[in-house]
Amino acid sequence: MTALAEKYNLSQNLGGGGYMKGYVRYHAPANRHYVGLYWHGKEERFWRYQGEPLFDKRTGIKLLSKIQADIDNGTFDPRTYRPDSPLSLKEYSTIWLETSTACKNTKKGYRNAMNKAIDYFGADHDIRHFTYSKLLKFKSSLNLSNDAEYNIMGALKTMLNFYRRDLPSFILPVFPSMSKTQREDQKYLTFEDQQSVLQAIPERNRPIFIVMMEYGIRPQEATALKWDCVDFDKNEITFKRSHSEYELRETTKTGSKGIRTEQITQRAKESLRMAKITPSFKGFVFCHNKQGSHYDNKLLNRLWRSACQETNINIGLYEGVRHSWGCQLMDMPGVTIDMVQDGYRHTSSKTTRRYAHRKRSVIADLIENRGKVINLDSAQIAKKK
User: Fold this and answer.
1) What is the per-residue pLDDT across 242-288, written as a single tens digit (0 to 9) for each?
2) I need a labelling partner for 312 at 20 to 30 A (CA). Which of 4, 93, 115, 211 fits?
3) Angular region, 312: left φ>0, alpha ψ -120 to 50, beta rest
């Protein structure tokens, strides 16, 4: 039995006999209609359709038709047609968020997305009844930036994929085509630019920035690096933890697929040895004071902004270390997008292209110089003859 089935005592085989043909009746005291049927010897009554009372018989007939379709498909459960159904958008999104292993910031984004969906579809909307046309109308109603719409629709799709693990026979609806905005010119630093910024960072704080630049890791993975992941004998360093706000997570942002074990380069080795001189707090490699306090994202960004101002370089920390690593590799002869993808541990090359996007000027130079031939003057031609 699945996690959802165990929590709500549901059976994956919800259909079966033991019911009469349903009916729609008017209830005078309540001044509205209800749908009724006998299910396994018990009369069930349903008073709402898509969260609204059944004020007219036509709406009641629509509800009865949906119920009978679920019975025919073997997916009927009376609880899904009542408020607080385990398969209502509000209730199931709560289950999903409670069991999700995403970091705090990602969960916060998911929660905001679900609130948008609940506001539009209603808290009682059955998650099995999403369709392409409904999703398209929802997307059109958002009236947000392209990236914000992409994140909201992506969260909804992630939740429905989670439900498909509960019920493998569930068919995921087709989602409207979405893509994040691609920057025409990805900002990044050359290796030389990075060295200029490093020189403007206080010497005792440089080791963590050097390691970030050397391996293109996320700042929250650098702050979470512990000495148990550094093996000088094997000459290996492993990035397998991350910070989410101030919480240490025993996984990377992308889970186990994001774990990286790399050879310790000479620059990294020198930085790690420098870091070993300072006291360590709970085994963290990089600490910024005599008490052994480890870095957080706020401190790293403050140090980075100060160094950038001093060197007249305008770029964020994430772009300056992680994006720049991929872009630098892509500008090296013989390096392919597959190599950079493997380095980042991305599952899709589309993701890698967002991080390692060549400058438009580089592409323009390639176009300009493709197919060029060497012009020979008449003296050279005569000599060749």
Assistant:
1) 988 778 888 887 777 789 999 999 999 999 999 998 888 789 999 99
2) 211
3) left
- Two tokens at 353? 């292209």
Amino acid present at 344: Y
Order of strands, sheet of 23-27, starting from the edge strand that comes earlier in the sequence: 23-27, 32-39, 42-46
pTM of the predicted model over 0.70: no
Note whether 176 and 139 are within 8 A (CB).
yes
What secondary structure letter does DSSP report for 322?
Answer: I
CA pair distance 358, 344, nearest whole angstrom: 16
DSSP assignment of 131-193: -HHHHHHHHHHH---HHHHHHHHHHHHHHHHHHHHH-TTPPPPPPPP--PPPPSS-----HHH
Residue 240 phi/psi, 5° resolution? -135, 0
Residue 86: φ, ψ to 5°: -65, -15
Backbone φ, ψ for residue 42 (5° rounding): -125, 135
First CA to last CA distance, the chain: 85
Is residue 239 within 8 Å of 260, Cβ to Cβ?
yes
Q: Are 168 and 4 in contact (CB under 8 A)?
A: no
Domains of the chain, start order: 17-73 (no CATH), 89-166 (1.10.150), 191-363 (1.10.443.10)
Please state the separation of Cα 252 from the chain's center in Å.
12
- The sheet that has 260-263: what strands, in order across it? 230-231, 236-239, 260-263
Q: To which residue do tokens 């999104």 refer? A: 93
Identify the bridge partners of residue 231 per DSSP, sorted by sequence position: 236
